[in-house]
């Protein structure tokens, strides 16, 4: 049986090593390499790429603190957190409403939630250029109502990027939350009302704690891809507001500074691992408390 487990799982282990572990090791090796004279890299060990995240070299060779990349990392984390919380706030009532529908209506609504995934991400993000742009849908609607005569541009700022990210990733939040709410026993809600619990008390003490695993799963599915978002900064940010995803793309592309791009990618991966580790520790602590 032990031999069967080893040989039976060997193809999966080999596939995981070739498609996951080896590429990560290559990126780590490139991040500690030296930038080539004409781009690319040379396998000479150095930490210059990581030092570049925090420092610039002055005219006389001394290191000067440069926070511009920290701003980009902070902006990325902040927008990812805001996107996750907004998706939570919007997805929960939508998922709860879907669970209250009949079987046929529920199937149609779930299909509508997944329908955007049938369209290219570029098309979905580009649509927001038409919605938020000058003489776009929002500006025309406000002019028709007579509320405004001249509306400042809604594009090429953090708000436009946030709107595009929420729209792009909210289905990833709705689906796990729906699955969690669907398993909720209606008798618990009825018991809460029988004990004179208000709707707010029922939501806070019954529904949210039981649906929390679905919210956490949705938060992971939304937060992780938001950290590496590329299209939203390029299209809705106009390429002027950098996030870690398009900073990495820029270093591997036009800047041809592969070691620095690899170091930013490693930092991004570490942020994701810290987020997942904290969530795993929280889940482990909660499971131990329940067992005790």
* Main sheet specs: 2 strands, antiparallel
Helix content: over 70%
Q: Proportion of β residues?
A: under 5%
Number of domains: 1
> From the helix content, strand content and strand pairing, which structural class follows?
mainly alpha
Number of H- or I-type helical stretches:
12
| Topology, number of strands | 4
Task: Sum up the overall morphology in one term.
Answer: globular
Please name the CATH architecture: Orthogonal Bundle
CATH homologous superfamily caption: MetI-like
Secondary-structure element series: HEEHEEHHHHHHHHHH
The CATH topology assignment is: MetI-like fold
- State the separation between the terminal residues, measured CA to CA: 34 Å
Question: Features of this protein?
Answer:
single chain; 292 residues; mainly alpha; MetI-like fold; two-stranded antiparallel sheet; 12 helices; 4 strands; 73% helix; globular
Describe this structure in words.
With 292 residues, this protein is mainly alpha-helical. It has one domain (67-287): MetI-like fold, CATH 1.10.3720.10. The protein is 73% helix and 3% strand. The chain has 12 helices and 4 strands. Strands 1-2 form a two-stranded antiparallel ribbon. Helix 1 (2-31) packs across helix 12 (258-291), helix 3 packs across helix 9 and helix 7 (158-182) crosses helix 9 (199-227).
